[in-house]
Design goal:
Elements: H1 2-14, E1 29-34, H2 41-55, E2 63-68, H3 69-81, E3 87-89, H4 97-106, E4 111-113, H5 118-126, E5 136-140, E6 142-143, H6 154-157, E7 162-163, H7 166-178, E8 183-187, E9 195-196, E10 199-200, H8 201-208, E11 216-220, H9 229-237, E12 244-246, H10 254-260, H11 266-279, E13 284-291, H12 298-311, E14 315-320, H13 337-361, E15 366-374, E16 380-384, E17 390-394, E18 403-411, E19 415-420
Bound molecules: iron/sulfur cluster (SF4).
């Protein structure tokens, strides 16, 4: 979502005659768009601002703005501690960025814009053409969260759940497709909680799939509790909807899920997975796990391992629990670091084995790849298959924006390598 927000900030400030630069020394205005989800996010902000300060030691300082969730959570503290920062702008207020910059150009008055103004933000953004011309583009359809998982800062930094109107979304999707986009990834902190006057995510997916030149649709991130029957149904019906779903579970123990306030059991989670598989047998899953959440016993941890083996996630993101200031879980007793590290290592070994078996099993199979751009090396093109695996092929032809059948011939931990099938009529695709 921050990548999307950064692009939209750029679209906004272009209206104020600012242009992006890759050379920090040239900057008149330096905007650091921040994420608060990982540990030490605030320290990184001070470090980055320190870097800018050093660069401009003997020159006129640029306007320095901190945007995003660290600005929202720590705004006043940032302004107090670091005088080099001119303004902080929260993720729901960045439509005000031109006003903030104009004010700073005129008078030396530091600014804190951290109101939750989601409706005004999207109304304002709706007036600015989305100039992103990537083959695969993000599009935010929903923001905020009402779930209040005990470990998470999102409800405090992004505010309550808000869904954009389908009209705004379809119009922006058409802009992206006109710019050359072939794949749209719909974004939301709780994307499947999308609900605009009873129009749900399933309705939106059907409408988007009617945009002729849009080839692929994905959405992330979903909450298991919001997986309604109509949404499960779309996975069997909508051919443009890709068969890889990121469905965070966090733990394989219902006891831990309860203490996290996730509001579902492991059995309910598996029921969603099984229903989706019944609608689309080629669907695969990725997930997030928190290891050593306060109160996690060996038995709870074994249940997470069991779930990992049972679902066979083709990708997973696992981290040792780290407390976010201000969240209820921050007050709970932590598990000893040595034990937590050992559990994480065991967990990641199992996850890696599953991933590597899956990838090796793709060798000699055929996959459909949407090519996004030229890779760094000469005559190599990068794209993704339907399950979002990175694929690289050799080609003398510019493949950007094309969907081609590729025979996979090798892989490493992150990438599949193959050759484009010339007649494009393979015997069978990888399921
Ligand atoms: S559902 Fe996701 S965004 Fe919302 S509180 Fe839980 S982890 Fe955070």
């Amino acid at each position: 979502m921050n990548a999307y927000d950064s692009d939209r900030i750029l679209d906004l400030i272009k209206k104020n005659n600012y242009v992006p630069t890759n050379d920090i020394k040239e900057a008149d205005c330096y905007i650091l768009n921040t994420c608060h989800i990982r540990e030490k996010a605030t320290d990184k902000v001070y470090h980055e601002v320190g870097r800018v300060k050093k660069e401009f030691r003997d020159k006129k300082k640029p306007i320095v703005l901190i945007t995003g969730c660290v600005a929202q959570a720590e705004g006043e503290v940032l302004l107090q501690k670091e005088k080099y920062i001119d303004g902080v702008i929260g993720p729901q207020s960045y439509h005000e960025i031109n006003k903030v910059i104009s004010n700073l150009e005129i008078k030396d008055e530091r600014i804190n814009e951290t109101e939750f103004e989601t409706i005004a933000k999207f109304d304002q953004l709706d007036l600015v053409h989305n100039t992103n011309d990537d083959i695969s583009s993000f599009l935010t359809i929903q923001e905020g969260c009402d779930k209040f998982c005990k470990f998470c800062v999102v409800p405090y930094t992004r505010g309550p759940e808000y869904s954009r109107s389908p009209l705004q979304i379809i119009s922006e999707a058409k802009q992206l497709v006109e710019n050359g986009c072939k794949e749209i990834i719909l974004l939301g902190q709780n994307v499947n909680a999308y609900n605009f006057k009873n129009k749900k995510l399933s309705d939106l997916l059907y409408s988007l799939s009617e945009i002729k030149d849009l080839q692929r649709i994905r959405y992330t991130t979903s909450h298991p509790k919001d997986f309604t029957e109509d949404l499960i149904e779309v996975h069997g019906k909508c051919k443009k909807l890709m068969p890889l779903l990121h469905l965070p579970v966090q733990s394989g123990s219902t006891k831990i899920l309860k203490s996290m306030n996730r509001n579902h059991t492991v059995e309910e989670y598996l029921e969603v997975i099984n229903k989706l598989k019944a609608k689309n047998p080629s669907i695969k899953f990725s997930s997030d796990f928190i290891i050593a959440y306060p109160g996690e016993t060996e038995n709870d941890f074994d249940k997470s391992l069991k779930l990992m083996k049972q679902v066979e996630y083709i990708n997973s993101y696992s981290f040792i629990f780290s407390a976010r200031p201000g969240t209820p879980a921050a007050n709970l007793g932590k598990i000893q670091l040595e034990i937590a590290k050992e559990r994480l290592s065991i967990f990641q070994k199992v996850a890696d084995k599953i991933k590597s078996n899956y990838r090796n099993g793709l060798i000699n199979s055929y996959v459909k790849v949407l090519f996004e751009n030229k890779a760094r090396s000469e005559n190599k093109y990068f794209g993704r298959d339907e399950h979002f695996n990175s694929v690289i092929v050799n080609s003398n032809e510019d493949l950007s924006g094309m969907i081609k059948t590729v025979q996979i011939n090798s892989c490493n931990h992150n990438t599949l390598f193959g050759e484009v099938v010339l007649n494009d009529k393979p015997k069978e695709y990888a399921a």
